[in-house]
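Known limitations

Structure tokens in this collection are predictions and should be treated as such. Users comparing against experimental data should check residue numbering before alignment. To illustrate the layout, the record for Coenzyme A biosynthesis bifunctional protein CoaBC is reproduced below. The input appears on top and the generated tokens appear beneath it.
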Amino acid sequence: MKKNIVLGVTGSIAAYKTADIANTLTKKGFNVEVIMTRSAMEFVTPLTFQSLTKNKVYYDMFEEITPSEIKHISLAKKADLCLIAPASANILGKLANGIADDMLSTVVMAMCNVPVYICPAMNTNMYNNPIVQRNINTLSQLGYHFIEPKEAVLACGDLGKGALADVDRIVSTVEARFHPL
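Generated tokens:
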């Protein structure tokens, strides 16, 4: 049976790597539904993900209001797993504090029994900021799963922890959730 993955893309230069994640998961037989934040769309377009997944890309909570379906609820209900890659400091703060003010944060808040995997990607100083670390700790304690960023030369030129984990590692972590060894 085809598993449904909600893939959240947030505003980070690493957003372009998420196209590879979406493409690989789709080719491996997963149904990938992409939700982008407005900031993510500054780095990569919805058309990229639509072309790779063959699914509509969601970003506007109020775009599809129909009497028969509330989209943020229906996406949450059909998901077998949620993957947020890259996860910005902004989305970490929203989720850790129960803020649901866009399509992605609202869908995640509606997921009570769905595993959520978060792949942080940001500048080293942002990642090491005590507030961001507190938000990560809070989310971990609440049962959210993290795929740690790697140390690398970042887009800003700094060397340190904050680069999005390798695409292969992210994909293999998702696959392992459904096919444990």
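For this record: The chain has a mean pLDDT of 92. The CA atoms of residues 34 and 57 lie 5 Å apart. Please report discrepancies through the issue tracker.
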